[in-house]
Automatic annotation (TrEMBL):
Record protein name field: Rieske-type oxygenase
Keywords (A to Z) from UniProt: 2Fe-2S, Iron, Iron-sulfur, Lipid degradation, Lipid metabolism, Metal-binding, Oxidoreductase, Steroid metabolism
Cofactor(s) the protein needs: Fe cation
Leader sequence segment: none
Pfam families in UniProt: KshA_C, Rieske
Species whose genome carries this gene: Amycolatopsis pigmentata
InterPro entries per record: Cholesterol_7-desaturase, KshA-like_C, Rieske_2Fe-2S, Rieske_2Fe-2S_sf
Listed SUPFAM superfamilies: Bet v1-like, ISP domain
Domain Rieske: 5-95
Assembly and binders: Homotrimer. The two-component system 3-ketosteroid-9-alpha-monooxygenase is composed of an oxygenase component KshA and a reductase component KshB.
Amino acid sequence: METGWYQAAFERELSDELTATDLGPVPLVLVRTPDRIRAFDAACPHRGAHLAHGGKLDGAAIVCPFHGKRIQLGPVGRYRAREHQVLGYGGMVFVGLGEHCDNGFADLLDKLTVSHLFIPGFSLTVEMAADWVIENAFDGTHFRPVHGIGNEPSLEVVPAGLGDELTFAVRGVFLLPPSPWRRTGGKPTEVPFLAKAFSPHVVVTEIGGQFPYTAITAATPLPAGGCRIRFSVAVLADGQESLPTEQARRYYRYLLESSRAGIEQDIPIWEHLRPVEPDYDSADHTVIAFREFCAKFRTEPRCAS
Ligand code: FES
Ligand SMILES: [Fe+2]
């Protein structure tokens, strides 16, 4: 099991008071109350029934569907459900498992809330380990062959600040093909980016240039293997109080659709990867560093498969 931040859901997936979700092998119940979303272990502490499958929310407890005990959502009572940290921002629901969550992710989302508008995006299920999906942001040599960008961005690891050991960041510059949203006279354009992982399952990428935006990519392991990718963006709010204009809406759609197309370019590679002992070269230094970062979140040795 890995600790740290995961995206457990989009808020729109929570249609009921109790929703089942899984963070890899950890089944959770998300509880929707009028003022917030909470996350608890789903296994009933009596004998393990899944509280989201037939359980009923009753005040500050869930009535278990198996033997009808009241499983308390607070600190008092014989049977209590263990609670996990939740960050609900812009239609995204993040859950922090165990330690290793105090790494500035909540502060970043807080800051973005002030200056940006969150656009909750799309989900995709892929047959690939979640940390490989996040690793993609740090794999500088795949961008040209897989995504057709015009250069091989040489990525530089951004030194972790004090108290920042539980994040991992790189920066670089992409040479991007012309897009309808950049006035470049049809020429490729240099776009700086900064990708920062907050766990093996969440990376936030700031893309600069003429129309800067922030991409939030989460990959949440599924219990039977593979993962669920959830992708969203945050765009500068520009002080707009009112509804976005039609042009802004088209731009958000373009960002999400082009990002989805980018992920779809990765999928055939991911889904046909064979397990080999990697033979890294010097350009893979950011991948190696990301792997070392991920190891900090592992709480027990993985079984060799
Ligand atoms: S398993 Fe939940 S009350 Fe028995
Ligand atoms: Fe990629």
